[in-house]
């Protein structure tokens, strides 16, 4: 089976200074393979400075590796020119962290979507262009009639990020580099965007490299994971296995640092009672020992766990302040 993408011992050093040169090794000896006929979601996880964005920049061809090769469908990307380079630019798309940054506030959404259509000559006529925009918006769960004609400030952060995904989808990419796509989006919208990405992989055959510092969202959507630390791969494998049973101390640290409200903690005189103890099953949730919600009683609004494999990342309690957790739990749990 042919490889879609292959990284062979890729390293990247940034050098500065002319006489006393100083090098920062941002990535060292990274190797990975994605198969062409098996669209998948691979997470690249790591703390700040571990080399994640450098990897994204390399994959998008914005910078060149210092050593090693990036092979896309059999071709070294640093040797692509002309039509081949254009095809690579079309087939490998990106969604970045900031859903606001790519929008020009003076233009409507239509403009953002029309530019790639024109640049890559994707449509034969205006009507065809309009159909393609509508198809892409529908594929990411947006209603074209609600979205087209609007200015960026008239949209929510989650809508803007899904429009970014739709823009990528217009180009029928084979590979999507999603660099922290949900980190600037409200917690309640994260699951929707992650679900959109998963649909892209499942229904449109797009492979996704999902870059994040957040292991819960990685666990949520990815099949496999590589964990970066100071530019090197610390651990790699099936996401379930790596997160449930991290072998490397750094991965253990990352897993242990997943924030979660301490439900043993007492606020005031009243202990927080686990709903599990009062009959809920909690089945299906990885954090059921820590979360008081049973799956059928999970109070995420809307009940996001339904679209997630586990309701960890999408649980609205996930990254709330203790005061909010206290308030919401007291509303939901029996006294
Ligand atoms: N243009 C550059 N010149 C010099 N050093 C750089 C440059 N870009 C990144 N670095 C360094 O390379 C290392 C990896 O940076 P990178 O941005 O890839 O990390 P990251 O994991 O994406 O971090 P974050 O999550 O904070 O964005 C860091 O030590 C960073 O300081």
TrEMBL record:
InterPro entries: AAA+_ATPase, ABC_transporter-like_ATP-bd, ABC_transporter-like_CS, Oligopep_ABC_C, P-loop_NTPase. The keyword Nucleotide-binding applies. The keyword Nucleotide-binding applies. It is found in: Cell inner membrane. Keywords: ATP-binding, Nucleotide-binding, Transport. GO terms for molecular function: ATP binding. Residues 5-255 form the ABC transporter domain. Gene3D superfamilies: P-loop containing nucleotide triphosphate hydrolases. Pfam families: ABC_tran, oligo_HPY. It is a peripheral membrane protein. PANTHER family: ABC-TYPE DIPEPTIDE/OLIGOPEPTIDE TRANSPORT SYSTEM, ATPASE COMPONENT (PTHR43230), ABC-TYPE DIPEPTIDE_OLIGOPEPTIDE TRANSPORT SYSTEM, ATPASE COMPONENT (PTHR43230:SF3). Belongs to the ABC transporter superfamily. This is Peptide/nickel transport system ATP-binding protein. The lineage of its organism: Bacteria, Pseudomonadati, Pseudomonadota, Alphaproteobacteria, Hyphomicrobiales.
């Amino acid at each position: 089976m042919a490889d879609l993408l292959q990284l062979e011992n890729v390293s990247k050093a940034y050098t500065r200074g002319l006489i006393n040169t100083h090098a920062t090794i941002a990535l060292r000896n990274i190797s990975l393979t994605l198969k062409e006929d098996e669209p998948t979601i691979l997470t690249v996880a790591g703390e700040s400075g571990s080399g994640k964005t450098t990897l994204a920049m390399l994959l998008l061809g914005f910078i060149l590796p210092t050593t090693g090769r990036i092979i896309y469908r059999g071709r070294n990307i640093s040797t692509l020119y002309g039509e081949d380079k254009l095809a690579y630019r079309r087939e490998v798309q990106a969604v970045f962290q900031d859903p606001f940054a790519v929008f020009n506030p003076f233009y409507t959404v239509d403009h953002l979507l029309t530019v790639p259509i024109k640049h890559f000559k994707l449509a034969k006529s205006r009507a065809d262009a309009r159909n393609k925009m509508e198809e892409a918006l529908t594929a990411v769960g947006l209603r074209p009639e609600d979205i087209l004609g609007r200015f960026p400030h008239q949209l929510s952060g989650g809508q803007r990020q899904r429009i970014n995904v739709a823009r990528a989808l217009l180009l029928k990419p084979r590979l999507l580099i999603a660099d922290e796509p949900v980190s600037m989006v409200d917690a309640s919208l994260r699951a929707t965007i992650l679900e959109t990405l998963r649909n892209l992989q499942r229904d449109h055959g797009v492979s996704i490299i999902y870059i994040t510092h957040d292991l819960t969202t990685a666990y949520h959507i990815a099949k496999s994971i590589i964990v970066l630390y100071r530019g090197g791969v610390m651990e790699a494998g099936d996401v379930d296995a790596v997160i449930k049973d991290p072998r490397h101390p750094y991965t253990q640290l990352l897993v242990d640092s997943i924030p979660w409200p301490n439900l043993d903690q007492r606020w005031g005189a009243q202990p927080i009672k686990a709903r599990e103890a009062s009959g809920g099953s909690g089945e299906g949730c990885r954090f059921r020992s820590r979360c008081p919600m049973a799956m059928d009683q999970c109070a995420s609004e809307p009940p996001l766990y339904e679209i997630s494999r586990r309701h960890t990342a999408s649980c609205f309690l996930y990254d709330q302040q203790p005061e909010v957790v206290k308030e919401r739990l007291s509303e939901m749990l029996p006294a």
